[in-house]
Design goal:
single chain; about 450 residues; alpha/beta; Rossmann fold; Alpha-Beta Plaits; 6-stranded parallel sheet; globular
Length: about 450
């Protein structure tokens, strides 16, 4: 597919890397010549130096013939104007990144009246991701499917858990039929388990299940964590602003620490139920004086990765049961051990996953449509939700009859109101919604799960 990306900042760069790797023909717009040269050297793509909202520049870049136009610059107004121009001259799909709440209304009317295919607000999407983390305190990560009916949660196995030493053949019998272990991370290696695999203490396992079954699983396996009530946030920027809007003041007691007076005052005026402290929330002394040890969750959202890491590390060592750390430069994770941080939030990866899903769906409009796409374990694992097309090659055969490729698992099937965690004798039928979890070669269509003996 021909895809044009406006902006070579962290969002545009991340998307360019993902989409080039998927085999698409990418053209980039960037007015900053230094950024432009950097991205041209890093990836195999075409480029134009100039204003992405310019009609002449868009024509030069071939926007009128492209399948998708992705406006990812640092300016909402340029992204909106550029997307309107792109749509008007023939781009099949347009997606614009916006951060201003005025441009992110809950109703689609604003977007539809502008003629833009989709708007994505990284701060709002990040706030939603944090809320999922808070709702499931036992999980390291949470991915939602089928409108929240099924989740894939990551849980670290403690030594005293019945999971330690358990064989996968015994997992359903001991933990519940409505559950499946989809991925195991062990000593830095990630793999899709089979019936001969076992779970060891220290493993991180990704379990697929229904909400009620997962709650029973936590309690039964000694991985349950108390519900989160008291939350401390450091950094009162845009993500915190959206997050407080999503939080229920009856459910959460929140303290926010922000060093900038104007931001602190804005947060207090908008959310008077929040205890706002004007101080440096990454200073260990400030955290200790704020009684950090009495909080259930600590969320570090400043604009500096190193400060976020340090603050979360202090919170964790003071006994806070859940820490959520915003990190933009993920290479920083390479120097940290798995035990240093719990939940990691990377806004440009959240945006990238959502846009890659949309591009795959557009690229596979004649096949089984991609409804959801998540990446975890540093991008080494993908979990995708498909709607099975009537002409799919997997229809009507049992899983044992299918020639499935290695390092892949059909984690769940939803058929109407029925949720199935499939075994060898189960089948995929036309119209089923299917979760596929895989490592290695990327999956674009449900039929891509085939080919185990190629």
């Amino acid at each position: 597919m021909q895809i044009v990306i406006a902006g070579a900042g962290k969002y545009g760069r991340t998307l360019a890397g993902e989409l080039v790797a998927e085999g698409h023909d990418i053209t980039i717009f960037e007015k900053n010549e230094e950024w432009f040269e950097d991205i041209m050297e890093e990836f195999d793509l075409s480029g134009v130096v100039g204003n992405a909202a310019s009609y002449a520049t868009q024509i030069e870049a071939g926007v009128d013939k492209c399948h998708a136009f992705l406006a990812m610059t640092g300016s909402d107004e340029i992204n909106l104007i550029a997307s309107i121009v792109a749509q008007s001259i023939g781009a099949e799909k347009t997606i614009a990144r916006v951060v201003n709440p005025d441009y992110s209304p809950p109703s689609p009317v604003f977007r539809q009246n502008l003629g833009i295919g989709a708007l994505i607000n990284p701060n709002l999407e990040s706030a939603k991701e944090i809320m999922r983390m808070l709702r499931y305190p036992s999980a390291i990560s949470v991915e939602s499917f089928f409108r929240g009916r099924v989740h894939i949660v990551a849980v670290r196995v403690p030594e005293e858990s019945i999971l330690a030493g358990m064989k996968l053949l015994d997992f359903k019998r001991q933990c519940g039929e409505d559950l499946m272990v989809s991925v195991i991370r062990r000593d830095g290696e990630v793999f899709i388990p089979d019936s001969s695999s076992a779970i060891f203490d220290g493993d991180t396992i990704h379990v697929t299940g229904k909400v009620d079954a997962l709650q029973n699983f936590y309690e039964h396996t000694n991985t349950v964590a108390p519900k989160i009530k008291n939350v401390m946030i450091t950094g009162g920027g845009a993500i915190a602003y959206w997050l407080l809007g999503l939080m229920n003041k009856q459910r959460y007691s929140v303290k926010l620490i922000e060093r900038d007076r104007s931001i602190a005052e804005l947060v207090y005026q908008r959310y008077p139920w929040v205890d706002v402290i004007r101080a440096d929330g990454t200073d260990q002394r400030v955290l200790e004086e704020s009684n950090i040890q009495h909080y259930d969750a600590f969320i570090s959202l400043t604009g500096i990765d190193e400060e976020n890491v340090l603050a979360s590390w202090v919170a964790s060592h003071k006994g806070v049961q859940k820490t959520i750390t915003k990190i933009n430069r993920t290479r920083l994770l390479d120097i940290l051990s798995e035990s240093d941080l719990q939940n990691i939030l990377t806004p440009h990866h959240i945006v990238s996953d959502e846009i890659v899903r949309a591009i795959r769906a557009l690229d596979n409009s004649q096949g089984s449509s991609v409804e959801a796409l998540y990446r975890f374990e540093e991008g080494r694992v993908e979990a995708l939700e498909f709607v099975a097309h009537p002409q799919s090659k997997v229809i009507g055969k049992t899983l044992l009859e299918l020639d499935l490729r290695s390092q892949l698992r059909l984690a769940c099937i939803v058929r109407g109101q029925e949720i199935i965690f499939p075994g060898g004798q189960d089948q995929v039928l036309a119209g089923d919604r299917v979760i596929v979890v895989a490592t290695g070669k990327r999956i674009y269509d449900l039929d891509d799960i085939l080919g185990g003996r190629d």
